[in-house]
Amino acid sequence: MFDEYDKCTVCPRKCGVNRKINKGYCNEGDTLHVSRAALHMWEEPCISGTKGSGTVFFSGCNMGCVFCQNKEISRGLVGKYISEERLVEIFFMLKEQGANNINLVTGDIFVPTIRRCIEKAKDQGFDLPFLLNTSSYIEEDTVKSLEGFIDIYLPDMKYIRDDEAIRYSNAPGYVEIAKKAIAEMVRQQPVPVFFDNSSIMKKGVVVRHLLMPGMLIQAKLIVNYLYQTYGDKIYISLMNQYTPDEFVLKDKYPEINRKVTEYEYKSLTDHAANIGVTNGYIQVGETAEESFIPAFDLTGV
After folding, report:
1. Which residues bind [4Fe-4S] cluster (predicted)?
2. Which domain holds residue 184?
3. What is the pLDDT of residue 92?
4. Is residue 127 in a domain?
5. Cα dist from 36 to 6, 90, 155, 211, 232, whole Å
6. What pLDDT is recorded for position 76?
7. What is the C-alpha to C-alpha distance for residues 98 and 17, in angstroms, rounded to an integer?
């Protein structure tokens, strides 16, 4: 029987590696690799609420962001290898802890396995929404394969020009790939749906953009594209907690070796408001100063 890991084309890189034997570009084989499973309080309010999002952090990543703050897990250096049965147990454990949803962070590279796990959980009566938290460097067909499995999509739209996608994330073709992926997500979840008597999302799409230094114009173009294309069908989340690693960036990428200024971020949020965005989130006060990175210490795994 054909196995999607045999000659891997799960992500746009289509590296063709047999992940049953070797690791792909993503630094992972075909076995689930998880670094943390716990309630996460720092997602958007419609996702975390006051109870938290039941977040599963997968190790490995198919991007190559030079500014990555999670290198220990994105490079597959930290984590525990688990079975499909254990992941299903984790879903139920997070539900017992009061999670609003199951938040699959960087689950893109394990989509074939994740589909099976969600199906197994639902066969056992699991009823929380499943959320895919993704960079959007994911094939449109892969997103299509998740229809009926994923209830909420939380994609990034990192770039609007491929030059920057290649320079900072080694992700050729990112812009068109992300546009197609997000379009498919919205096709599946065209209207935000919330739980009765609460502000917690049950179905929908929230697109994130992390403002980077010197990229204000691009950020505004991204907001324009998202709002002109989808209007109020989606929520737009504008983030400003970019935190550079000065030792990594200082020589080759000095132009992004600083935090975003208050002016830059206010200019972006004002622009979003001026063009009519109302379904959106911005970061204010202390949230603007935090990077929201938990300890990848195998909690809950």
Report:
1. 61, 65, 68
2. 32-289
3. 98
4. yes
5. 27, 10, 20, 26, 33
6. 80
7. 39
Residue 48 forms part of a structural domain: yes
**Does the annotation list 8 as a binding residue?**
no
68 marked ligand binding residue: yes
- Residue 19 resides in a domain: no
Q: pLDDT tens digits for 220-269?
A: 999 999 999 999 999 999 999 999 887 889 899 999 999 999 999 999 99
> Which amino acid would we find at residue 74?
S
| Structure confidence at residue 285 (pLDDT) | 64
- Reference 214, options 246, 242, 237; nearest CA is 242
Query: Is residue 46 assigned to a domain?
Result: yes
CATH of the domain at 207: 3.20.20.70
- The letter for the amino acid at 44 is E
Residue 95, burial from CB neighbour count under 10 angstroms (0-12, 13-18, 19+): middle
Contact 63, 135 (CB under 8 A): yes
Question: Does 61 appear as a known binding residue?
Answer: yes
CB atoms within 10 A of CB 221: 14
pLDDT tens-digit readout, 40-69: 999 999 999 999 999 999 999 999 999 998
